[in-house]
Amino acid sequence: MTTPPHVIAYRVVTVALATVILVAAGFGLAGRGPLGALGTHLRAASSQSTGGAP
Amino acid sequence: MTMRALLFSSPGLLGLASGVVLYAVALYRGLVRSPVLVTPQNYQDLRVKAAPVGVGQFPPDLAWPFYPVRQAGVDLAEVRYHLHEIYLRLWKWPRDAFFLGLHGSRLWWWVFFPIPVTVIYFLLVGGLAAWLCYGVYWLVTTGAAAANMAAFGAAEAAMRSAERHRRTRRHARAACMHCFHVTDWPAYRCPGCARLHHDVRPSRLGLVTRRCECGTHIPTVASRTAWHLTAVCKRCEQPLPEGTGAIRDVRVPVFGDTSAGKTRFLYAALSSLVRTAERAGLEFTFPDKASQDQAELGLSVIRDGRDTAKTSATAPVALTCRLGRGRRSELIHLFDAAGEHFRDAQRYDELRFLDDSQGLVYVLDPFAVPAIQDQLTGHNATVIRQAHAAAGDPEIAYDEVMARLRDGGVPAGAQRLAVIVSKADLLRKTGLELPTGSAAIAEWLKKVGMYNLVVSSQRDFAEVRFYTVASQQVAADRADDPEAPLSWLLRAYGVQLPGNDPPPGPA
């Protein structure tokens, strides 16, 4: 039986959403992209609050 | 060595990459190469298993269910299964070599321990990455399904409530003139595969439209479905008029004793109604050939002033007419059964149309009332002969119908009754003075010995009005107009009738 279009559409949307999240997380781990920038910002803020200690 | 450094080492990066590939392969296998589909038949079987179909019920319709209902869970399970299977297969060789010693000596493998450690590390990171990807996919699918179902549930409840409200307000039901079965909405035949859909309301099979098993889109709200698909009776599967289930549907049975003048009243009222509609520029049609032929025959008899033939005692006559056009039209069903049906308890089943009626017309032959017969003795004998007086007691047919309604659990107290004193033209010819107005007619009937009938009808029904009716010579003030009782009943159920005839005063 042929897969109806609404099932295909749902699958495409969920996989695409999951992929976007995974790519963003991957770039974040590598210190790039919005998550990477957020990580850098948080690390900087944390080091400032501890008086610049590493 | 930090965790970050470990992860971004060569085997770590390779493991991460292979984990993503593993997840991608599992997705491909689970969703593209060999997906498991929740077909309409699967879904129907599941629902029937969960809630077995009772007597007089129908199994859920065969249409594709909404994705989050079942398919989302099945897809997640499929991807999980394939991921698990591929990952186990990846572990097979290292396990055989490093732990079971199936590929050379185990000792030698562990002498060169960096190799097994690197491979195991690679597999662990790969597995972790793959299952992490799957976790994200699971979260997205489950979150989307939950959000969809919540929004869907609210929309479904709102749409069903709006449709129910609209139906109640419009008295939109589905009445079959073949088997007299009346349901809240009919079944609709799919134009693609001719399969019947018994419940097209918004549901898990679709909110605005549903997709039949054959792929055809079907609107889910009966007020739209009724104009796109053929409506069919749920019991006998005979086609119903266009718009059934979406437009006002009023059913008025006419009952009374044999020769009381039921058929004559029905066609005289219809003839008057047709004329009124024509004057107002309203379309008046008959949606099926049987009704059309029957009406043409009956109306020609009335218009030519001929005698009405005795109604066949084999089966009740049902006549459907449509007032107005398209979505603003209204269906009116008139029932006429031979008087014998109301006298014979064994023929109760043939009077099923009484159970779902909205208003009733009781035809009383004044020539069959003993007190009137006494008054007429020695009067115009030709007129009395012309009247073909009913032989039985006028109260018997009334009592039989009331017994039938009571036995069937039909709440007569919610219905309206029009009591018709037929043959008024003939009665006037004999020189008898007839009162006008419902209250005056009721009083007159009480005086001529119909006290019990008047009192019990007023007790049994929500509202009763009394009329005198002439099929031929309507009085100049239209007091005997056969349309008046029918108009009153139809207007009471919201039928938009033209004309400015003031209804008779209440009883």
Provide a quick synopsis of the model.
Chain A has 54 residues and is mostly helical. Chain A is built from 2 helices and no strands. In chain A, helix 1 (5-29) packs parallel to helix 2.
Overall description:
The complex is a heterodimer of chains A (54) and B (507). Chain A is mainly α. Chain A has helices at 5-29, 33-49. The mean pLDDT of chain A is 81. With 507 residues, chain B is an alpha/beta fold. Chain B has 3 domains: 3-58 and 66-170, no CATH class; 174-232, no CATH class; 248-492, Rossmann fold (3-Layer(aba) Sandwich). In chain B, the strands form 4 sheets. Chain B has a 7-stranded mixed beta sheet. A 3-stranded antiparallel beta sheet of chain B has the order 4-3-7, with helices on one face. In chain B, strands 1-2 form a two-stranded antiparallel ribbon. The A-B interface holds A 1-4, 6-7, 10-11, 13-15, 17-18, 21-22, 25, 29 and B 7, 20, 27, 31, 35, 37, 39, 64, 67-68, 71-72, 75, 133, 136-137, 139-141, 144, 211, 215.
Task: Label this structure with key terms.
heterodimer; A: 54 residues; mainly alpha; 0% strand; B: 507 residues; alpha/beta; Rossmann fold; 7-stranded mixed sheet; 14 strands; 12% strand; disordered C terminus
- Ends of chain B: how far apart? 100 Å
- At CATH level 2, the architecture of the largest domain in chain B is 3-Layer(aba) Sandwich
Number-wise, the strands of chain A total: 0
Total helix count of chain A? 2
Shape of chain A: rod-shaped
Major sheet of chain A: none
Task: Determine the oligomeric state from the structure.
Answer: heterodimer
Largest sheet of chain B: 7 strands, mixed
- Order of strands in the sheet with most strands of chain B: 9-10-11-8-12-13-14
Instruction: Please give the radius of gyration of chain A in angstroms.
Output: 19 Å
Structural class, from secondary structure content of chain B?
alpha/beta
Please identify which CATH superfamily of the largest domain in chain B we are dealing with: P-loop containing nucleotide triphosphate hydrolases
Note poorly predicted spans of chain B.
502-507
How much of the polypeptide of chain A forms β-strand, as a percent range? under 5%
What is the ordering of alpha helices and beta strands of chain A?
A: HH
> How large, in whole angstroms, is the Cα Rg of chain B?
37 Å
